[in-house]
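Q: What does the assembly look like in three dimensions?
Context provided by user:
Components: two
Sequences:
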Amino acid sequence: MDVTGHNLANVNTPGYSRQTIDFQSMGDFSFWDHGVNNLGQGVTTGQIQRIRDNYLEQSQNRNASDLARANTTSDGLARIDDIYGEPGSSGLSTSLDKFFNAWSGLSSDPSSAAARTAVKSAAQTLTDGVRSRYSDLDQLASEATSQAHNTIDQVNSLAQQIAKINSKIVESGNQGSPNDLLDQRDKAINDLSKLVDVRTAKLSNGAVNVSAGGFSLVNETVTHDLPNTFDPATSSITDGTSSFNIRGGSLAGQFETIQAARTQQGQLDKLADALRDQVNSLHATGKNANGDTGVLFFNDGSTAKGAIDFNLSDAVKADTRNIMTGTSGKASDAGLAKNLADLRNANVDSLGKQSITDFYKGNLTALAGDANYQKGLASTYNNISTQIQGQIASVSGVSVDEEMVNMTKLQRSYQANAKMLTVFDEVLQQTIDMVRP
Amino acid sequence: MINDRVTTSYQYSRYNSQIQTALERLNNLQQQITSGHKFENMRDDPLAANTVVSVNSLKSRFTQYNANLSVAKEYLGTTDQAMSDMTDLLNSANTIALQGANATSDASVRQGMVDQVTQLQNRLLTIANTQGAGDKYMFAGQNTTVKPYAAADGKLTFAGDDNAVQVEVRPGERMAVNLPNGSQVFTDTYNRLESLRKNLSSGDATALQGSISDIKLSLDKVVSLRGDAGAAMQTVKRLSDDNARRIDDLTKQASDAQDVDMADALTQYQSAQIGYQASLQVIASGNKYSLLDFLR
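A: Here is the predicted structure of the complete assembly.
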């Protein structure tokens, strides 16, 4: 009845495994030392069993790692996707179109001051867009980095918790059934699985050794702190001498997020460099009405690199007349503007022989595909998790009805025992009455 | 899933995931209906979103081409007007030349004719130096900021060039919109008017006959140039219509890829709502009883 009560009390406790009791009959009792008229002594309680399926438990832990990784990565990629903000009128795709369109407009009406201003403002929107996305990605990467450090701290504190439970179990000599301790430890290992991919090994003394990515976190009652130095590119943690690959849990997802953000920053660098090089080298050949030549459109690629300080040149910022449309200096010479407008379709070696717009779009689609894949993966793992949880709930979960049946059964058996006593008492009474003079 | 035991926590975890699924579906459809879009981000549907990005990009290009075509219209319209003015001018010159060939005797009458021709020359100069939007000289080739034509010693000098002004009208397609070799028709005509003026002054009847046929040549040239401008204007109009149609097509393509079919979405929404209600109903009624209710 005590066990049933315990089960019912924990019907909603996460990680609780239903317990059953083994009833055993007590040994025979011999009345007269002659080996005759042996009588049963009744019943005693044996071990209280924890009902748990080890295979399911391990699947659950593995899946928890996969799910946490996919969820974290999917969230990270979704945030990168949001940073690009496509498809939308404020995306870089629109900015690139507007930039080249403005050159097309200027090439068609090269003497127009309005067309010149349109080129400048389109270029400004483009450079601002590239720069702000670059810094948003930077922000995302550093957030994910600090989250990864937090995760490592959590891993270490869970490892300590597991080691503590280990030592309690070992202290108890693995005697009896420290069921609730075992449940707590299973819960801690499951929580740990959500953070990193965990391997466990059960020892005969009841302790469990835990490792993550080949790094030993818990060795019986001793813990080793997961090192705080990591390389997101290889998704590994290093203690200075050897490195350990983290393949699961939210930590792996955080590494993947950092890596994806850094990769995208690299893509923006390529985009900015290609624009700067291509536009500048053409633009420098131009000659304006004042006879100026060698003027750069974007800031100088020999001093400014990548997306971080992608901007217009000071000359163009100061005066739209420094925007070149031709090489002759004549007001309506639009040959250069035409070539600049045609850059939109020009294949650039540094972009893998793709045009600037194709490169951007290809990168965007690949990223979206990745984000979509990870989201699908997360959803699959989530379904599996529901299935496993269902199975675990089926095996280890407490059924109120079942416990009620048990309680009724035990109650009846108690009543029967009580009745037995009453009958025995009556029989005894009658016997006494019989022998009474 | 086939389970041996249906436990309380199993039941609740199933209920939870069922309600979640139903609610997610409902929420998703709700979002689609209120936004009018099947998806909001690239990641929701990378392929369709890629189409939307490409289509919008192309659409913005065609919008730009239509803006460029307005520059073409300006040039061609100005050419048309100028050639029309030149026709009038040459017709007047022709009338004067014919009059001069018939009545060469009176010196004062001839002087009046000479003055008229001088005025025609001045008018020609004004036409040749026509300015368009942004004060650009329309018949100066690419040298549009410098006043192209000036008259000195009975001759017309040209400070512009013979380069074409081109406008991007379609992807990779450019169209010359200014008067080709624009200076020639103005300088030739000016020179012919100058010789007409001289011939009127001298009263040389034979030479005047020559001037009359010269003016006819100029008139033919002007009419043919006007015809060319008209034909080019037709092309511009056609291109502009084509581009507008392309923009419409592209708008439709983007809409097909991204926009929600409202009737369909609303039907689905209703069925999702019923599904959600049903799952709530099942949980509420299925979970009403436990053995507890029957034990006294």
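Follow-up: The radius of gyration of chain A is 37 Å.
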